[in-house]
Amino acid sequence: xxxxxxxxxxxxxxxxxxxxxxxxxxxxxxxxxxxxxxxxxxxxxxxxxxxxxxxxxxxxxxxxxxxxxxxxxxxxxxxxxxxxxxxxxxxxxxxxxxxxxxxxxxxxxxx
Amino acid sequence: xxxxxxxxxxxxxxxxxxxxxxxxxxxxxxxxxxxxxxxxxxxxxxxxxxxxxxxxxxxxxxxxxxxxxxxxxxxxxxxxxxxxxxxxxxxxxxxxxxxxxxxxxxxxxxxxxxxx
Lengths: 111, 116
What we know:
Chain A has no helices and eleven strands. By secondary structure, chain A is mainly β.
């Protein structure tokens, strides 16, 4: 059973607008969350992380929000750029154990 | 610095054949992970090693799958015999962990396997 879910398989956004990618999880013990970005024919690369002691972490155009009560995680990209077009995976771990990944959301930023 | 190296990048084989995927982790990393990516299940962890020792292989789908890490710089994932449903992209990742495994993992480019 998927412990980390990304219910939107794809998302299209105009260049310059905000992209919001969502992720839900079921395990309340998860305490560390990451977003990975994956281009075609490449492996996923780390993008941004957040610990459960925070509800927001920002890195340039990328911000991750964590809502623990809702078991919901989101990644905001502002402004979106064509180079952001990729598949985005969220991942979660509990107490330093293995990561569980979602199925990914394919983002297309339209110039 | 070289990242995680995987070979081959592409593999096409016939059902029933043995397939061996190879991985060289980043030097200095002490944890190695094998993942399988499918459309339905995303990235699934198959097995991970810490200091060359298999820690959790509960994600290995069947006895047809086996993995080894004979030393800190090399790991293999073997499928014998292969079946069409094994067709997927297989990723190897490594990380340096000083305690738990919550540290960032660095992924290789993947091996795209097609079993006919």
